Amino acid sequence: QVQLVESGGGLVQAGGSLRLSCVASGTVFGIDVMYWHRQAPGKERELVAVITSGGSTDYADSVKGRFTVSRDNAKNTAYLQMNNLKPEDTAVYSCAAQVLDYTGRHRDYRGQGTQVTVSS
After folding, report:
1. 79 CB contacts (<8 Å, ≥6 apart)?
2. Tens-digit pLDDT profile for residues 12-40
């Protein structure tokens, strides 16, 4: 089995920074695309950032210039550096990944998420 576990969330004042991590463990033979999503109360899940195995990235317009996604393929880990946080960034942040698992195919997995709360 494969598990994705996020960490690094917490409470921060507006203008502050947090760094989220997402570690994939279990029967992982490789990871293709990794995603960061967020979901605020009463809102739909939103794609925040994407990073391919080659390091290409893309971001939601709302976080461009403030958030940076990166990954360490050797550690099966993705990171989300969040700077200049705003109260509207408050949400549960989760990661997802296309993992080459024991089936020999890439399958989608998602973590449970970590809470990020930004106070004004």
Report:
1. 19, 20, 21, 22, 69, 70, 71, 72
2. 999 999 999 999 999 999 999 999 999 99
Q: How many CA atoms lie within 13 A of 58 on its CB side?
A: 7
Residue 104 structure tokens = 């020999």
Confidence of residue 116 (pLDDT cuts 50, 70, 90): very high
CA 98 to CA 114: how far, in whole Å?
20
List, as one string, the DSSP characters of 26-71: ES-SEEEEEEEEEE-TTS--EEEEEE-TT--EEE-TTTTTTEEEEE
75, with CB counted inside 10 A (0-12, 13-18, 19+), is: exposed
What is the Cα–Cα distance from 14 to 106, expressed in whole angstroms? Answer: 38
